Amino acid sequence: MHPTTMSAYLNTRVSLYAGRLWPDEALDVLAGVPDDVMADTLTRRGLPQLAASYDSPDAPQDSRSLEQRIIAQILDETRVLIRPLSGAARTFLTFWTARFEISNVKTLLRSKMTGERPAVVLARLTPMGAFGRLDNQDLAHAEDVGELLRRLEAGPYAGIVRHARRAFEQSGDPFSLDAALDHGYYEGLILRAQPLEEALGAPFRSLMANLIDRINLVWLLRYRFNYRLPPAQVYYLLVGSRYSLPSSLLQELATLDSLEAVLAALPVAWQAQLSGVTDIPGVFARMERAAAGQALRVLRSNAPDIARAFAYLILRERDLRAVRAVLRGRHLGLAEADIRQALQRMPAEAA
């Protein structure tokens, strides 16, 4: 596809998809939509994967099925957006979907630790469609954890898995295995983002910075104060960063003894952003709000097409997680007021 045609296609598609994003008042309304019009409401919002369960009363509506349909929607839209892309842009957005397959890897590994039957675990894996790179049937029938890791190390995520296997062999702790897989994935994402940051400049870099800084700070707080890990181990599990919270600062923060001390040691702009926060979920929510606001600004700007596409995917996934919370609450029979309270989604600020 000619570069001009590619740009026109992607710009048009992103602009059309942007109309599917959910304003906060629409989520509020969704909590009270009658069941007989729910399918139509979801379809009009571009969510046919979720609407199908309301069209067919026999369709499963459990949490696993709901999560799988949401991811299927994300993958479908990503597949459309990358259609005209090649090179670093296609590589990056394709790898952006790989975190769902890394989640499948975690599920497979846990199944071997608990002795779960292959047929059971296969039903719990998220279908990856055209983005799937693993032979789940083969992996599910591995004899044990060691054999599964060996098979994974011969596959497309060899580098990520090799690092995770070493961490697991040293500790024997499933947590170390999960944390190392996450670490390896985000290190890979940063590597694939670098050529785009150099080519596209501030709009794309700001999206990556918000993502990686949020991940690192929340991980640091969880590992240090929820799991009580020592500073050296906490720092080892964080993603190498060159953004607003560089690795040198993260190393210092990991030595502090309380959430309050960590927040007080952040750069001044971060202290203002997190003013009044008293717990780790609050830190995540405040940072996610800021990231969504920046993504919205990029989406509505004349930023390069790839940056706008990435901004849309960030916002779309945030929306779908909120829709999931509403639908799950309805499935559990919660009152509308309770669903709205459970959402607690802080609106993205586009100013």
TL;DR?
The protein contains 19 helices and no strands. With 351 residues, the chain is an all-alpha fold.
Note down, in words, how this protein is organized.
It is a single chain. With 351 residues, the chain is an all-alpha fold. 73% of the residues lie in helices and 0% in strands. The chain is built from 19 helices and no strands. α5 (63-82) runs antiparallel to α18 (305-331), α6 runs antiparallel to α7 (118-124) and α18 (305-331) packs antiparallel against α19 (336-343). The chain is globular and about 55 Å long. The two termini are 36 Å apart. The relative contact order is 0.11. The mean pLDDT is 90.
The percent of residues in helical segments reads over 70%
Shape: globular
Q: Kindly state the mean pLDDT as a whole number?
A: 90
Distinct helical segment count: 19
Number of strands: 0
Based on the structure, what is the oligomeric state of the protein chains?
Answer: single chain
Gap from first CA to last CA: 36 Å
